Amino acid sequence: MSKQKRTWDAVTVTIFAGIFFLLVAIPVTLIMQQQSVYEITPTAFMADDYIKVTDNTEEVVPLESVVDGELDPAVDTSLPRYITVLNSCGVHFEGECLRVRSGPGLDYPVVSSLRTGIVLKISDTVEGDGMVWHQVVFDEWLRYPERLNSEWYVAAKYVAVVYDEGIQVMGEDGYAASTTKVITIDRSDQMLYAYEGDELFMEESISTGIELSPTPRGTFTIFRKTPTRYMQGPLTYLAMSKYYDLPGVPWNLYFTEQGAVIHGAYWHDSFGKQYSSGCVNVHPLQAQVLYQWADLGTTVVVRD
Fold first, then answer.
1. Please, are residues 179 and 298 in contact by the beta-carbon 8 Å criterion?
2. What is the mean pLDDT of the chain?
3. 102: exposed, middle or buried (C-beta count within 10 Å: 0-12, 13-18, 19+)?
4. More confident position, 175 or 232
5. Cα distance between residue 273 and residue 117, in whole Å
6. Are residues 148 and 239 in the same domain?
7. pLDDT in tens, 29-74
8. Which stretch of 1-10, 179-188, 268-277 has the lowest confidence by average pLDDT?
9. Which of 87, 245, 261, 279 might form a disulfide with 42, Cβ 3.0–4.6 angstroms?
10. Which residues are within 8 A (CB) of 77 and not within 5 positions of it... i.e. 6 or more apart?
11. Residue 31 placed within a domain
12. Around Cβ 189, how many Cβ atoms within 10 Å?
């Protein structure tokens, strides 16, 4: 066989291999991606449950009890609805992630992946492909709204619904309910202590700001609460600010007007050492407990 013929045979094989890849391998890959949402099988909470907003964050009430029977007086179902992701991939996307789609069905494109600990507000619940889907709403100010270029739908089977008051803000006159609650942030030990009077409510490892963007020292007051916040960077007013895009940052307690917040962090597990850009990062589960305990007007003391 001539060298020229062997060359043409090699070219022919390469062409057919490329065609095969386009016609077979890519569609198969896409189908596998579409179906991979089924691989997430949460064991603690299912779509037919919702969480009671109490100090016991693991208390789950079957939805049937509020449909077929009387409403549980401990849960106000007229409150805004949020979903919390409790059994998805880890902080570095390890494991199978719950996928967000642009519409209520598996044929819609995947637009994002949700890690465990994310909390999102929902506006509607619909059916599609024989499944129930929650429509996510971002009804908040976004620094970079162009990053959100699609509708978000999440399969209800893989999240828990939480009823919460939503955004709470202290009045312009500074009035808040009288409280003896105090949260102490120790930057040296990277610890958070929550007290009611002399009684210790919580002791938890945290992550405060790095040296270039430290958590401010001083005595402050919690003046704003919100179950979820879409945090985006860089911050245009900080020369050293970095890029970040974090939807569904959970359980936010604001204590400075410049944006210092105690909140859950689902994107790292470095609690016990400095990590943040100035906020106080707490494990999401403990952040929820703290959020439900802390009142507007709670004192926050940040010390070394």
1. yes
2. 81
3. middle
4. 232
5. 20
6. no
7. 333 333 333 323 333 333 333 333 333 333 333 333 233 334 456 6
8. 1-10
9. 87
10. 66, 71, 163
11. no
12. 13
User: What are the tokens at 111?
Assistant: 């637009």
Residues present in the chain in total? 304
Name the pTM for this structure: 0.76
Burial 46-56 (b: 16+ CB within 10 A, else e): bbeebbbbeee
pLDDT value of position 16: 56
Q: How many domains does the structure of the chain reveal? A: 2
Do 205 and 103 sit in the same domain of this protein? Answer: no
Boundary of a domain, candidates 163, 178, 211: 163
The residue segments making up the domain with residue 155 are 39-163
- 85 with 183, same domain? no
The pLDDT of residue 12 is 56
Claim to verify: residue 114 and residue 196 sit in the same structural domain: no
* Dihedral in degrees, nearest 10, Cα atoms 155, 159, 165, 168: -100
* CATH number (domain holding residue 281): 2.40.440.10
Query: Looking at residue 113, which CATH number applies to its domain?
Result: 2.30.30.40
65 CB-near residues (< 8 Å, 6+ apart) = 72
Instruction: Give pLDDT, residue 51.
Output: 37
| 27 is a domain residue | no
Pick from 98, 130, 163: which residue ends a domain?
163
Confidence (pLDDT) at 212: 87
